Amino acid sequence: MTSTTVIADQAVGPPLWLLAEVTYACPLHCVFCYNPVDFAQHGQELTTKEWINVLRDARAAGSVQCGFSGGEPLVRDDLEELVAEAHKLGFYTNLLTSGIGFTPERAKALKLAGLDHVQLSFQDSTRELNDFLSHTKTFALKKKAAELIQSNGWPMVLNCVVHRLNIDYIDKIIELAVDLGAEYLELANSQYYSWAQLNRDGLMPSRDQLIRAERITNEYREKLGDKLRIFFVVPDYYETRPKKCMNGWGNIFLTITPDGTALPCHTAKMIKHLNFPNVKNASVKEIWYDSKSFNFYRGDAWMKEPCSSCPEKAKDLGGCRCQALMLTGEAANADPVCDKSPHHQVVLDAVALAQLPNEKRIEVKPLIFRDAINSKKLSKVE
Amino acid sequence: MMSDDDLLISKPSVASMFRLQWEEVQQSWVLLYPEGMVKLNTSAGEILKRLDGEKTMQALITELETAFEATGLEKEVLGFLDIAMKQGWVKL
Fold first, then answer.
1. Where does chain A have alpha helices with state H?
2. Residue of B nearest to A16 (CA)
3. Of A257, A223, A208, the residue nearest A43 (C-alpha)
C-alpha cells in the first residue's frame, strides 16, 4: 500500500513520508528482516522527548505520513505517547506491527491517541511454518490482533512476506487473510537486503514457483472481487529494469533509525562513505535539504554510464543504490537488475541458482535467523 | 450509472478510508489514507472540502459559482465527482 501520488516537481519537495524506526528490539527472528545485520551494535535509542522533537521537526518540514516501525514498535511503552503527539501535529499515523504485544488495552490506548491505521504482518513464517499453515498458534495470535483492528474501526491491511519456503502455500495464506477479515493483502516477495541478503539463496523462489503463485493469486482475485484486494510483488531480480527505489533518493522518504540517524531509506546506512546525519545534531530541514548525504544521489547528476546517457533514467533513476553497492561494490553503478548494467550477470546467476532445488545445489547454506547473537557475530566479521 | 440529475440531488461525503487535510508546506489539499497520499489540485480541493454528506451537489455547485464568481461549473464538478467515486475517495 506504500503508494504516494504526487505531482512531479523539479525542486526538492518535502520529506512527505517519515518512517520512525523506534526500536530494533523485536521478539521475532525473521530471516528476511531488513534491519541492519549489525543492529545489536547500534547506539542508544532516542528517548521519548527526542522522538517528540523529531516528530515536531519533521512535521514542520512537511512530513505528513508517519509510520511507526521497528523492530517491533510495540516493544516501546511510550508508543501511545508518540502516536498522540504525531496525531496532534496532523500526521496520518500508521503502525507496522507483527501483533505481538498488541493487547486490548494497548489497542484502545492507541485508538484514543489517534492512530489511523495498523498494518499487521505475518512474520517468521519459516520457523513457524507448520504452525502457521495449520492455523494454530500463529493464527490465534493474528486472529486476536485482527479482531482488535476491526473492533477499533481501523482498516484491515495484512502484509505477508513471501519467499521460497512459503510461496507454495499462497492459497492457504490468502484463505487465512479472508478468515481474518482482511480488506487488503500485500503478498510481497522478500527484498534482498540485510538479513534477507544473507539468506538470499534460501529465500528466492524459482520461476515456476512465482508463476504458480501469481496464477493462484489471480484466481483468488477473480473469486473474491472487491472483498479482498491483493497486491503481489515479485522479486526485482526477475525484472530487466530496476525499481525506482524509494521513489528517488531524498525525494519523499525519510527514515529515522532508533539511535536518531537520518537515512533516505531503511538500509542506506550500508553506504559507508556517506556519513549520515543524526537528528540529535541537526534539524530535519537541514538534514533533508542541506546535508551532503541526502543530496549525494538526488536527481541524476551523480550517474555513471550506462545510466547517465540512458533514455529511461528518469523512469527508475538507476534503481537502488544499496543494491548497486551490495552487488557491484559501488553505489553509483547502475542497479544490476537492469539488463543494461555490465554487472547484470550477478543477478542472472542468483536467479539461475534459484531454479535449482536444494538437492542439486553444491552448497546449501543454513538460514541465519535475525537475533542479537548472530548480529554480534556477523558484525565482528565485517 | 447515475444520471446527472440523480447526482445533483445526491449528498456525497469523503469516504471513511480517507482523510482530507490542508497541507501548509505543500500549499494544497491532500487525501491521506493508509500509507499513502493523493495531492489534489486546486479545484479538486475546493470541491472535496465542501462535501459534508448533508449538502446536495446542486447546492455545492451554486456555492462554488458564488465563491469564484463563475457560471457553468456543473459539468466540471460532476466530472470530478465521477472520478472521485471511481477512485473510492467519495461515497454517496
1. 48-60, 79-89, 104-113, 129-133, 137-151, 170-179, 194-198, 200-203, 207-224, 284-285, 292-296, 313-316, 321-328, 344-354, 372-381
2. B37
3. A257
Q: Which amino acid is at A101?
A: G
Using a CB-CB cut-off of 8 Å, the residues of chain B touching A64 are: 21, 23, 30, 32, 37
Given a cut of 80, is residue A353 above it in pLDDT?
Answer: yes
pLDDT in tens, B40-66: 999 999 999 999 999 999 999 999 999
**What's the confidence (pLDDT) of residue A31?**
86
pLDDT over 70, % of chain B: 99
**Pairwise CB contact (< 8 Å): A116 & B39:** no
Q: Closest to B35 (Cβ–Cβ): which among A62, A67, A90?
A: A67
Mapping DSSP onto H, E and C, the string for A193-208 reads: CHHHHHCHHHHCCCHH
Q: Average pLDDT, stretch A359-380?
A: 88
**In contact, A36 and B48? CB cutoff 8 Å:** no
Query: Alpha-carbon distance B85 to B68, whole Å?
Result: 24
Residue A173 grid coordinates: 495464506
Mean pLDDT of A75-99: 97
Q: Is residue A103's pLDDT more than 80?
A: yes
CA gap A204, A188 in Å, rounded: 12
Of A308, A237, A302, residue with least CA distance to A273: A302
Find, among A313, A329, A371, the residue nearest to A26 by Cα.
A371
What is the CB neighbour count within 10 angstroms for residue A363? 6
The length of chain B is 92
Q: Is A44 helix (H, G, I), strand (E, B) or coil?
A: coil
Q: Determine the residue among B14, B20, B33, B35 to mutate to test chain A binding: the one whose Cβ has the most chain A Cβ atoms within 10 Å.
A: B35
Predicted TM-score (pTM) of this structure: 0.91
Instruction: Evaluate if residue A6 carries a pLDDT over 50.
Output: no
Model confidence at A132: pLDDT above 80: no
> Per-residue pLDDT tens for A260-303?
999 999 999 999 999 999 999 999 999 999 999 999 999 999 99
Pick from A92, A93, A185 the residue to mutate for testing the B interface (most B CBs within 10 Å): A92
- C-beta separation of A64 from A294 below 8 A: no
Instruction: Annotate A223-287 with DSSP letters as a single string.
Output: HHGGGSEEEEE--GGG-SS---GGGSTTTSEEEE-TT-BEESSTTGGG-TTS---BTTTS-HHII
Is-contact A157 A183, C-beta < 8 A?
Answer: yes
Residue A7: is its pLDDT beyond 50?
no
